Amino acid sequence: MIHKKRSLDGATRESLDRATNGTGTDGTGTDGTGTDGTGTAGAIEARGIVKSFKARGDVLAGRTVRALRGVDFRIPPGGAASFIGESGCGKTTLGRILAGVESFDSGELVLGGVPLAGLAPRKRAPHFRRVQLIHQDPYSALNPTRTVESILRDPLALRAKQTGQSRAWIDGRAREVLDLVGLDPGYVLPRFPHQLSGGMRQRVVIARALTVDPAALVADEAVSMIDVSLRLGVLNLLRELRSTLGVSVLFITHDVATARYIGADGELYVIYRGEIVEHGPTETVLADPVHPYTQCLLSAIPVLHGVEQPGADRLAPTEPLDESQPEDGCLFAARCPFATDRCRTEHPELGHLGGTAHEHACFYPQRRSVVATPLADT
Amino acid sequence: MTAATQATTSTAAAAPPAVTIRDLTIVYRTPAGELPAVSGVDLDLPPGTITGLVGESGSGKSTLALSLLGAVQRPGRIAAGSIHVDGLGNLVELSAKSLQEARGGEIGYVFQAAQNSLNPLKTVGKQLLDLGRSHGVRDRTALVRSAKELLAGMGLDAARVLDSYQHELSGGMRQRVGIMFALVLNAHVLVLDEPTTALDMISQANVLKIVRAVHTERGLTTLLVTHDIGVVAEVAERIAVMYGGVVVEQGETADVLRAPKHPYARALINAIPRVSGDLSAARPLPGRPPTLGTIPTRGCVFRERCAVYAERQLPACVAEQPPLAPVADGSGRLVACHAVAVEDQQATGETA
Amino acid sequence: MVTAVEIPTGNTPALTPARRGFWRNLWRVLRRKPTRVAGAVIVALFVVMGVVGPFLYPANLPTDPGNAYAGPSGSHLLGTDFQGTDVLALLVTGSRYVLVAAVIAAACTVVVGTGIGLYAGYRRGGPDSVLMRITDFIITIPGLPLLLVLSTLWKYSNPLTMGLVLGVTGWGSVARAVRSQTLSLRERGFIEAARGLGLSTAHVVRKELLPNVAPYVAMNLLISVTVYIYLEVGLFFLGVLPFNENNWGVMISQAVQNGVTQTGQGLAYLLSPLVAILLLTLGIVLLVDAMDEVFNPRLRED
Ligand SMILES: Nc1ncnc2c1ncn2[C@@H]1O[C@H](COP(=O)(O)OP(=O)(O)OP(=O)(O)O)[C@@H](O)[C@H]1O
Ligand SMILES: Nc1ncnc2c1ncn2[C@@H]1O[C@H](COP(=O)(O)OP(=O)(O)OP(=O)(O)O)[C@@H](O)[C@H]1O
Ligand code: SF4
Ligand SMILES: [Mg+2]
Ligand SMILES: [Mg+2]
């Protein structure tokens, strides 16, 4: 398993106050395949996270929705983990739990190497603060009545108070974080959020998150509401923060291509109805998915005809998720084109594919190439 | 149905376009005066094809699409140009009454955010009957029957859906109900505004499959508006790229994707991350998309972000908006770029 | 450090100085519509009247029984009352009580209502239920009878007591409305972000929530002023409150008691306070229209 027992030492305490200017963790920490036990200092781990909600809405009212059914993952410092899955699979819930804005029923969280289980709620707050959430909608994530300067000032002032820094430090740091996210402080500071483009707003949101020297950013659909031409800039920023500041990125999205762009060197987790059904190095899972759900998901990605050719084994679209489908056996059985009787009665557990880092939860794993590949002549 | 299939397979050049838009300008009244959201657009929708209209937020896609319904709302108005729809004539000159009949009748429209545009207080079936009444449909049984056929064709339990309220349907189901409403009165022209934007990949793939299927089955002429080039690439034969209220490139989808000519089209296509291949091929586009008030009024709308202009500084780019003109290679591609025109001239000059 | 610095290109809107003072914002927004300027002028006139007016006249206004119920004339612009006192003088000296009490009441309403609404909406859960029970109780207290009962204890000779009593019984609906706004704001990303950054509850309420409910609070403040003026004037008019000082309500009450409505004599005497109230209401209504834009930087532009 990827989750080995690790010793938690003084290094983790230090990491809380790690300087941000890029020297804390060197750029090489980004290879993050997560299969070995090295570089545990700032790692983020989740073990068996379970979360249920009382369902809302009229259709399922009164029932419990099992949003997460025991999720395990690990992100090394500066590493990337992408979570993909269709709507309602629990991706957002997972991100919110990690950032401490949502509670969970059971399981264990280790943030920056510190297990939270033994800590009193008050003591957990500083650890949760090191995981910052980047919201999907950069407009609603910024207070419309305040200028960027005042938005950045508050968290910095709080920090200055704690560490006894001066006003000048606050001003300097505000400019610094804006520089880090590629914005011109002189232009941005006096402006209100609505005076900035979507991409700039999202950068301000990221800059604000950087004011607390986070160990990790949870980016939940962080570019889906930004203009197409500006998306890549924000994605590049997240990539660079990984290598320059050693910030880990947990990237949640429907859009597999952006997940790949952020974390081609990281891990990809495919989540279905609150369960991880496939996991492995991003490029491996995309090129050789073995779980039928992953294959359905990847088959649904539009093919850029003219530049790409569809994967040889591309599957036809399945019907969308229906929460009322049976929960015994494989959760995907009702929609799976390859399901057998065994699938409908027995629950497949996550296990490794022939001793590799590639994990899946399917009785009949079968490599299928479903994603589009570039046409030879381009 | 054979006619329809023929129409789909025949190329754009063969049949006269079902919809011809010429020199269309639509302005919105703002505190800063009347500003054009669509300026001098030419667009043809060949019969039996799906045309994808892509562009970023605020580029004027919805405004252009709404004009096909004669439904540009105040403070907007059509300031110039014509919209010819086969069998209806010039929409700009039609009376309000004939326009109202055409809407939902000849021309089916699925609104942006159709997921939320159903009346939450009425069942789908009741809304269907309302639609029939407003269009003077006598035979209500036939109306319900064709609605059921459409819904069943899209893989829904028709009886249940007609009995449902909006909140009882998922996003993908609502989108299909929207398509049913657009087609139930036998529209020939279908306009879909961002039909998959709020949906996840699997629902999106389902909706696109359905769009493709009804389009072929009914021999429609379809305009699909989206900001997602992938969606267009998946289902549309033709693509039109909009920027700042102007169509900057138009042609066969595969051609345009393979070799975009307009600098904006090229930059936009290059800015999309891919699921396979070389990751570093993706390049960000500098600057930001213009809003109504910041679209340059003189010269090319894209000039400020244009890499070609940055390099070659053509005076024409500053002087006037280039017209959408055929490219010399004979591919039927239309491009609005001075640099492309100059290259073409040089190329033809050399060969001559 | 980052390669692609997002440099704004030439098509970015010219920078409108973002951190302008509140008053300059107010002025800019008012100037945008003549009706707003008119509203502001009217309100300003009344404020001046309430503050300065009483000093312009002697403490005891002269009476002239020989010239009672006179119509408007050069020496008495609005005519005279049943004792021959100048109506304009009565109107001006009587404004202070009414206005001060209404402003105090409105301020009370808004401060208490907003405070409770914000806190209940932000904390939710237990504190919310308790506070909302209290709010419901306040809302269900019938205001007028309570004031009548209290009038047996208090004489309301002082606008301060009057204002406090009105305010303390009137904040319920504001609290409810602010709470529901807070509940919806709470779901917005920036509130969650502030908490995620470790900012205190006081900070979140004061600096994140309050500015966003401010337009609403300001509108309530203005509208409550008119509501309370009507309420006060109504109370005095009904004659249920004893009075030992002049104010608009007293004027109307006296005019009616002295038979102006029957004889038609001294109509200006009856109408003056009524028109004053209507005019002030108009001024406030015209001003309310500007509040959204004053507090919302997005609307403030273009
Ligand atoms: N606060 C809540 N109360 C009740 N149910 C909830 C709540 N939050 C989430 N859920 C339910 O939990 C499940 C997982 O939701 P979640 O938002 O995590 O999904 P997601 O994968 O982020 O979906 P999407 O891609 O649509 O954002 C869904 O069935 C959702 O309805
Ligand atoms: N009612 C209106 N009043 C004033 N301006 C408007 C109005 N509707 C649209 N606009 C402006 O017209 C321009 C084009 O808008 P339109 O909705 O057509 O864009 P779009 O390409 O559909 O964008 P999106 O992808 O966001 O839907 C935008 O700049 C928009 O701000
Ligand atoms: S276990 Fe069976 S049902 Fe589940 S995904 Fe694999 S093949 Fe399909
Ligand atoms: Mg989500
Ligand atoms: Mg639109």
TrEMBL record, chain A:
Domain of life of the native organism: Bacteria
Sequence ranges assigned to domain ABC transporter in this UniProt record: 44-298
Bias (Gly residues): 24-40
Alphabetical GO biological process terms: peptide transport; transmembrane transport
InterPro entries (alphabetical): AAA+_ATPase, ABC_transp_ATP-bind, ABC_transporter-like_ATP-bd, ABC_transporter-like_CS, Oligopep_ABC_C, P-loop_NTPase
Keywords, in A-Z order: ATP-binding, Nucleotide-binding, Transport
Recorded GO MF terms: ATP binding; ATP hydrolysis activity
Region (Disordered): 1-41
Composition bias, Basic and acidic residues: 7-17
Family in the record: Belongs to the ABC transporter superfamily.
Protein name as annotated: Peptide ABC transporter ATP-binding protein
Organism: Rugosimonospora africana
From TrEMBL, chain B:
Protein known as: ABC transporter ATP-binding protein
Keywords carried by this UniProt record: ATP-binding, Cell membrane, Membrane, Nucleotide-binding, Transport
Pfam family, one: oligo_HPY
Main location class: membrane
Lineage of source species: Bacteria, Bacillati, Actinomycetota, Actinomycetes, Micromonosporales
NCBIfam families given in the database record: oligo_HPY
Gene Ontology MF annotations: ATP binding; ATP hydrolysis activity
InterPro entries xrefs: AAA+_ATPase, ABC_Ni/Peptide_Import, ABC_transporter-like_ATP-bd, Oligopep_ABC_C, P-loop_NTPase
Membrane topology: Peripheral membrane protein
PANTHER family: DIPEPTIDE TRANSPORT ATP-BINDING PROTEIN DPPD, OLIGOPEPTIDE TRANSPORT ATP-BINDING PROTEIN APPD
Cell compartments where the protein resides: Cell membrane
GO biological process: peptide transport
GO cellular component: plasma membrane
Residue span(s) of domain ABC transporter: 21-269
UniProt similarity note: Belongs to the ABC transporter superfamily.
Automatic annotation (TrEMBL), chain C:
A GO CC annotation given for this chain: plasma membrane
Subcellular location per the Swiss-Prot or TrEMBL entry: Cell membrane
TM region positions: 37-57, 97-122, 134-154, 160-178, 216-241, 267-288
Residues covered by the ABC transmembrane type-1 domain: 95-288
Pfam families registered for this protein in UniProt: BPD_transp_1, OppC_N
GO term, biological process aspect, one: transmembrane transport
Family indicated by similarity: Belongs to the binding-protein-dependent transport system permease family.
Protein name stated in the entry: Peptide ABC transporter permease
Coiled coil: none
Alphabetized UniProt keyword annotations: Cell membrane, Membrane, Transmembrane, Transmembrane helix, Transport
InterPro entries in UniProt: BP-dependent_transpt_permease, MetI-like, MetI-like_sf, OppC_N
Superkingdom assignment: Bacteria
Topology term for the membrane: Multi-pass membrane protein
CDD domains in the cross-refs: TM_PBP2 (cd06261)
